[in-house]
Amino acid sequence: GGGAAGSAAEDEGPPAPQRVLFPPTFSVSEIKNKQRRHFMFLRWKQQQRKEKLAAKKKRRKEREALGDKAPPKAIPKTIENQRVYDETTVDPNDEEVAFDEATDEFAPYFNRQTVPKILITTSDRPRGRTVRFCEQLSTVIPNSHVYYRRGLALKRIIPQCIARDFTDLLVINEDRKIPNGLVLSHLPDGPTAHFRMSSVLLRKEIKRKGKEPTEHVPEVILNNFTTRLGHSVGRMFASLFPHDPQFIGRQVATFHNQRDYIFFRFHRYIFKSEKKVVIQELGPRFTLKLRSLQKGTFDSKFGEYEWIHKRREMDTSRRKFHL
Asked: For residues 191 and 229, what is the distance between their CA atoms, to the nearest angstrom?
């Protein structure tokens, strides 16, 4: 009888690998042993991934089987498209907005009455990385001049800038040798914006970067500046660059606003053929977050603020954005 039992066992083949099954009330955090807990968590994540992939394959097969009768694909919910409506969102056809734009501090620039002339300066006695960042920024913004401060107060620099026909002042602040703030002041009458700066990458740190930028005037792209505040900030950035881009240089400076973070990128187009175009990043790159917008030029003591970011009062919803 032993032989028959042996042959039956052989027919069954090797045992199937067991699927990890956790009880419905089981929580990995209950496991006291740290290594065991970590191992079980990884196995659980792997199982979740497999189930997700299987469901995706199943849905794709069902869509293929239905062909043209397949229902339209659902749009995934994101923080961005679930954004809380802001009553200050700008309507391009609004007469009030058109009037404000025709009479605001940037109107002479947009009417081509003034040519941008930018002074880039730093916090007192800057270190190597901030110095290199300022130099690279001056190759991105045409007609910009770098000046290193030696203990001179901003309130004394501003009158000198106005006397020498500078239209904007850019101040790069640093902390522990890393650029961490940007003050942008439009001259002679303001406004002044203060940004927190992060994720700064210099040219040499960017992978697959292009050759040095040329002296052509770049195009400027402003994305997603939809509210009145966002509109003002976008106009501030636009007025840093000459109004007539030289498309022959194929260079583009992009300010992209997403969830109130402003991402700056500097690219060059490369035409591979009549149909195929690729972009090459030139650098530098950085991210800005608006802290405050102040009327007039920089005045930390008596300045009148149009907008200040107050975290406890303003950041009550993850879907509420101000720009």
From this structure: 12
